[in-house]
Write a structure and sequence with these properties.
The chain is an alpha+beta fold. It is built from seven helices and ten strands. The protein has one domain: NADH Oxidase, CATH 3.40.109.40. Helix 2 packs across helix 5 and helix 4 runs antiparallel to helix 5. The two termini are about 30 Å apart.
Length: about 240
Amino acid sequence: MMHRKFQYSFSDLDINALQVEKLLGYDENGDRSVIQFFIGEALEEAASLCMAKAEYRIYREAILQQDTRSLKTGDVVFNINKIVFNQIKNLESLAVFACTAGERLGERSRDLLGTDPLRGYILDVIGSLVVDAAADLMQSELEISQKESGLSISNRYSPGYCGWDVSEQHKLFSLLPDNFCGIELTGSALMHPVKSASGIIGIGHKIKYNNYTCSYCDMKDCSYRGLKDDKDAKHKGSMA
């Protein structure tokens, strides 16, 4: 069983003001001078608070059941639903991952929301970008390592998205050792630190990484929809 850990500095994550503006809903053609000042301050503060980490663990035994749209590894059966099932249907093994921005960034954002809501919200958005960027870097490392063996990887999928029930987070964490990436899971399937993510990535000779198909997802109000094209372009460029 392969298990790898990563730790990233804020500069490693390549987060910029334009990404923050997009998540805040600012139009590129509008006057952004005021918000750019606050974003700049928040990015500087986030750099001192960021404690980004990621880990993955590969399970060689992974079995898909077509009739139930389920995935089994060891004694754990995930009811992943048809969207995720169809995207990983050619997998041969499975990577289970987790990543986090660490405690300090989320705690600072929460404290500021009561006294300075704008700064608190901007830091909250940056915290989400930190988790996503750390997951991207972890996924790139996984992709490179598997390519050496002639294998490809899928996109990453998490409980709570694409019709996969968030309660299955408990099953996912049952496959991970305690304190994996410094994350704890509450009884209601929420992660602590809050700015964390977890999920699965399929691995196989015939599996493919696809452009993010947001139209398939049932989360129509997802704020990341505007960033997916940029992410896919960046991914294609890195693998050219």
